[in-house]
Give the backbone structure.
Amino acid sequence: MSKVRELELRLSRIEEELHLFQKISRLMVREVPLRQELESIVELLVEYLECDSCIIYLKERTDLVLCASNIAPASAVGNVRLTIGEGLTGWVAKNRRLLSISREAYKDSRFKKFQQLDADTFEAFLSAPIIARNRVVGVINVQHRDVHSYSGDEMELLTTIGEQIGCMLLLAKLDKDALEQTLSMNELLSAGVLAGAGR
Amino acid sequence: MSKVRELELRLSRIEEELHLFQKISRLMVREVPLRQELESIVELLVEYLECDSCIIYLKERTDLVLCASNIAPASAVGNVRLTIGEGLTGWVAKNRRLLSISREAYKDSRFKKFQQLDADTFEAFLSAPIIARNRVVGVINVQHRDVHSYSGDEMELLTTIGEQIGCMLLLAKLDKDALEQTLSMNELLSAGVLAGAGR
């Protein structure tokens, strides 16, 4: 491949990634229900990463509950559960670490099979914690049916999206009253946000 | 310039922009005080856009109050105020529109001079509304001392950053109790976020 062609491909790829972030940022400001936001993220990621599976789990006490996916049947949403530490996904939540496996993910000693998901037919697995206010509040997984070595850019992307979903979760629960307070400058000032400010 | 060199420059520029977004996303998840977040955004933007001025105004009732800037003296923070509709900045808030002026911004009929700021010596002006939950809650401005035609990419960037600051404002005011609720799956379910979910 010529140098020009190679650079053009890289440029087009990174432009797509930038648009992905802009779309997610736009989701965050629109008054979109959380469920719809999560499904949009799954769709955007499947399209961008050309992966076969994308699943978002959210934490409920000591469990991780499946909340959005491009492959799970509707019955799995809210019902497929893992405990923290269980399976590859539970490992990511427990250790708060990115996990990247390029082949035979189903042979990993941490792997756990679910009847409702076809995860045992996927070779490659990339998973990042969903972080809100510095705490793990969920996990986002991506899987490729074929062997796939995840690039540093792909890892970085999923990490950032894990952070953005964390922000979405927080934003989703703000009620109108809290919102009014949030937008009051006096509140910000009295909270010391601006007080004593100097540079 | 050779085609290869041109592509390399564009690639390096867009990679920088991507890193800028990743850094801002990271600011949002860390438990950083809002004031520090706003100052970090100003710094990141000044570095990336190579602009001479960057100012963030937040809305308080019918006013816009200066909250962070690379050029305003400390005394201006919390004190420089505009009413919605006043000056170029007030116009952006009132009309909820991006404003881009490449030269002689100080001659614009909407321009308003402040003693504490040197805005009247800047040629170029780019300004975007800060949006939270679909409402204008502030304005972010960027200025170049010399004539500068803002690119579509630069306009898109400031628009997205205006949205991200909006999210930061909302997140900054969540108290610990609200946070606990937010992270409870039961809350999400009872709010109908996941209930009746099918695809």
